[in-house]
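REVIEWER CHECKLIST
Item 1: Sequence provided? yes
Item 2: Single chain? yes
Item 3: Sequence as submitted:
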Amino acid sequence: MLLNRGLGGSMLDLGEQFSDNSNQIRDAEKRLAIQHTFIAQLRASARDTKSAEESLEVIRDILRGLYNQRSQLRRRIGGPKRSSAVPRRAKNGKHRGQLRR
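Item 4: Structure as written out by the authors:
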């Protein structure tokens, strides 16, 4: 079982951390959509959007941090690596599937 110290020193399973992170991302994405709608409503009524746009930036920063956390969790869990999808060169320098001459 993969365990790691979470916030506050408690032991959390990496899978639980990933699940919590996914829920936080989903909530932040919903808040982001709601904030976009709110800003559009303010603009439609010719009202000042500065404060709402500042809040939007805060939500974006939070979301960016959550995405970074998810990426780190994936690395620690040992999930699929994107680089493995890129074909590697064979020892003779030819790509796989290329006809030999």
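Item 5: Key structural point noted by reviewer: Strands lie at 3-5, 11-13.
Item 6: Recommendation: ____
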